[in-house]
Amino acid sequence: MSEIKTIGVYTSGGDAPGMNAAVRAVVRTAIYHGLKVKGIRRGYEGMIHNEIINLDRQSVANIIQRGGTFLKTARSEAFMTKSGRQQAYDNLKRNNIDALVCIGGNGSYTGANIFNQEFGVPCVGLPGTIDNDLFGTDYTIGYDTAINTALDSIDRIRDTAHSHERVFIVEVMGRDSGFIALDVAIAGGAEGALIPEDISDWDKVLNHFNRPGRRKKSFSIIVVAEGDEQGGALVLEKKLTELYPDLKIRSTILGHVQRGGSPSARDRILASRLGSEAVKALIAGQTTITVGIISDEVVYTPFDLAINGKKSVDPALIELAEILAI
Prior knowledge:
Distance between the termini: 60 Å
CATH class of the largest domain: Alpha Beta
Helix content: 40-55%
Strand order of the largest sheet: 3-2-1-4-5-10-11
Number of helices: 11
CATH architecture of the largest domain: 3-Layer(aba) Sandwich
Largest sheet: 7 strands, mixed
Shape: elongated
Number of domains: 2
Strand content: 15-25%
């Protein structure tokens, strides 16, 4: 049996639907194995300011269906300093916390990794971000909900685009990755997807409008990832308007609406599996690893590889989006 007696769990970075389900799984699995759990509010910032609460079965009742994170999340400049991390460590010891479960993204993993190196606190990470850009897992917590939220919006925009015979450029989140944009473009029947991973995507959009034999269509939907090198929706609207002044072009930025809402069934199940496996990993003596699911199998990925590894969209999906846009 592991020497761990009390686990601290926290959410860090951007919120994602399913984080509450992950916390719930951590708490209930730990209790099942005879361990105590404490929640750290507002991530690393709360760790520094001793915002640490006891969690039990009742604490996590009725949260699996809630979006966001009931533990809250915040950026912490202080944790980037040695003195800030020392204060955080002192608070963990004051609360008898022996190990940590960190739910977040690359920045959160980096903080946990440094913390372990300096103080030896066992840490396990869970991939919580809507961007789906973390190495070591097929899907991240929150991604499925985010693409369904974006898809619902695009379906609604399509009704207006058709009614007014307009071209709509829809900007979705994704930072430096095109997972959301590409999946939503395919599922939403878009005529183009602009993503950071495809350097020829702008030419494909122009080819769509310039193709001599293309089908006559009075409206189009173009999906763009916020991190695409061509720019966001407003920039693209200006570019296309200059090139095609006869078209009625409008842009829409979906923004943070994609982060909110009740998590999908898939996200709840994924978060529950990962949260439970994180506790089992700590009990087994694992540390500085992330827990993910690849080909429906649980995998452990070292923090260094999870932080620095590059995850990219499937080229076959890029080709599929182009084929279906004709």
